[in-house]
Amino acid sequence: MPEAPTAEPLDDLTGAAGPARDGPLVAVLGATGYIGGRLVPRLLADGRRVRVVVRSPEKVVGRPWAGRVETRVGDVLEPDSLHGVFNGVDVVVHLVHGMTDGDDFERTEAEAARAVRDAAADAGVDQIVYLGGLGSGKLSAHLRSRQHVGEVFSDGPVPVTELRAGVIIGSGSASFEMLRGLVERLPAMVTPRWAFDTRVQPSAIVDVISDLAGVIGNEAAYGEVLDVGGPDVMTYRQLMGRFSRMAGLRDRLVIKVPVLTPSLSSHWVNLVTPIPRSLARALIDSLTVDVLVRKEHSIDRLLPRRRLGVDEALCDALEEVRDQEPESWWTDAGLASNPAQPWSYDPDWAGPTLYEDERAATTTARPADVYDVLERLGGRTGWLSPKWLWNIRGLADKLVGGVGSSRGRRHASRLRVGDAVDFWRVEQADPPHALRLRAEMKMPGRAWLEWSIDEADEDSDAGEPGETIVRQRAIYHPAGAWGRLYWWAVWPFHFLIFPRIMRRVLEQAERPRVSDYSVR
User: Fold this and answer.
1) By the 8 A CB rule, do 473 and 358 touch?
2) List of residues 6+ apart from 262 with CB closer than 8 A
3) What residues form DSSP beta bridges with 255?
4) CA-wise closest residue to 28 among 105, 77, 83, 89
5) Best label site of 153, 259, 313, 345, fewest CB within 10 Å?
6) Which of 102-111, 256-265, 284-293 comes out lowest in average pLDDT?
7) Is the pLDDT of residue 322 over 90?
């Protein structure tokens, strides 16, 4: 057995200032997971002190809240490593789950729960909060294990509050990403009976986080098993239809077949979506039985409020496609106000599908000279790449009712946010560092073309001090299967366009320039 890691505060590793030393202390296990990663900033925003317990402290370093929490190293599968990690803690929140295919995951989850339960009791913790799985009757192995973990916690002396949730809607949620993957990628599909027959009661992630925060330290919740669900009850097939409408896609043709077992279904889901097979199997197993809130156990008894319906929850989860700048998909979202949005440390299979053509180069030209060339693109200047390709694309756009490429531009050499440039619209203009254009031509999806310009320094990986680093990125978010076909259909032409744009921009930026203003 490996030596148990010693408890060590993250503050000692990062040099960051620790949290305030007053008020109740909440220990979160699973803080780097989907739910935990969104719960921790909520607790901090509520003014709570937070201690996170992790196996690998390096996973916490770099999180926007890392300097505001205490961190202890501990492994729920190594009981000795939990000795002392809950000292001084008032509430333990257990968000650790195993989503695997192994035969022993039920035993492993129960052993982990016993280790946490006993360590919490030894430390004199007031409450354990546990997020389990919703469902009753003949349960899948994973749901059965979730509920057994709740029973293990209840066997100890520390009061337990168990929340049971089913399908959670929010970008990054495994349930939502499976839904997104199926509907966006397949205009038609075959599904087993469970998609048509079993019913689900989805919860918005914002409501799940609020419920967890609401029961922490709430003595009225001690000893309670509380079912969490939104106001809408539907089949998974109906949920697919809701997603299609909210995402602006045509309703999918779904054919019911009797022969797809959960195992075969998981292989199929793994094939057409980014969800790993082991996770897909656990999700599908849980969808073979009704997962509905029991009214007598509803959390609304304790925390009554209006909960988001399915359409509102889907709208929140899809908001990054509609209203957010694309930058939010690949940089840290920080303490985001809406947990339904994607965060940079979500699993790599989570979030909307994005196709990118990214290029980087260095130049001796100043950032202002590079930006000046970019600012003149379009209109009479053109796009510094084969004109006939742009003319064909503009004509095709006109033929399908688009704006075409003949709009030109407001000013020959200056751009501001909101300006039209041929069939682009300026979405960001930050001279001399960044320019982003959003495509307005007709296409099955949304597209951007952006440049970032930075001066290289001693710490730069891409350039030497005194040089300028230019990054060019074409980004495409496809809508449905046609969107993906569109990307691959035009992909060969990218090699004729984007490298040439980058090369010509740098060439022109490095030339001696004549002032736009004559001396009188």
Assistant:
1) yes
2) 192, 281, 284, 285, 288
3) 190
4) 89
5) 259
6) 256-265
7) no
Residues 476 and 413 in one domain: yes
- Tell whether 237 is covered by a domain: yes
Residue 440's φ and ψ, nearest 5 degrees, are -120, 10
Cα–Cα distance for residue pair 159/161, rounded to 1 Å: 7
Complete DSSP assignment for 338-361: -TTS--TTS-TT-S---EEEEEEE
Give this prediction's pTM: 0.64
Task: Give me the mean pLDDT over the 258-271 stretch.
Answer: 66
**339 in any annotated domain:** no
Number of domains in the chain: 2
Please tell me whether residue 97 adopts helix, strand or coil conformation.
Answer: coil
Contact status, residue 294 vs residue 136, Cβ threshold 8 Å? yes
Domain ends where: 312, 329, 346? Answer: 329
Average the pLDDT over 168-178 and give the result: 83
What average pLDDT score do residues 103-119 get? 87
Tell me what pLDDT residue 465 has. Answer: 78
Mean pLDDT for the stretch of residues 171-193: 79
Please report which helix (H) or strand (E) contains residue 471, including its range: strand 468-478
* Alpha carbons 381 and 327: distance in angstroms, whole number: 28
| pLDDT tops 90 at residue 479 | no
Helix 141-154 with 105-122: angle, nearest 10 deg: 20
Examine the domain organization and report whether 276 and 322 are in the same domain: yes
- Residue 262 pLDDT exceeds 70: no
Q: Could you tell me which of 445, 450, 422, 446 has the C-alpha nearest to residue 435?
A: 450
Q: What is the 3-state secondary structure (H, E, C) of 379-403?
A: CCCECCCCHHHHHHHHHHHHHCCCC
Q: Mean per-residue pLDDT for 389-402?
A: 82
Residues 293, 372, single domain; the answer is: no
Q: Which domain covers residue 55, as residue numbers? A: 10-329
Average pLDDT of the residues in 117-121: 94
Angstrom distance (rounded) from CA 337 to CA 332 = 13
Give the tens place of pLDDT for each residue, 7-22.
Answer: 333 333 333 334 444 5
| Best CA proximity match to 285, nearest among 259, 258, 265, 257 | 265
Together in a domain, 302 and 424: no
Q: Which residue is it, tokens 């539907």?
A: 234
- The candidate with the shortest Cα–Cα distance to 163, out of 220, 225, 229, is 225
Sign of CA dihedral 201, 206, 212, 216: negative
Q: DSSP state, 85?
A: T
Q: Looking at residue 414, which CATH number applies to its domain? A: 3.30.530.20
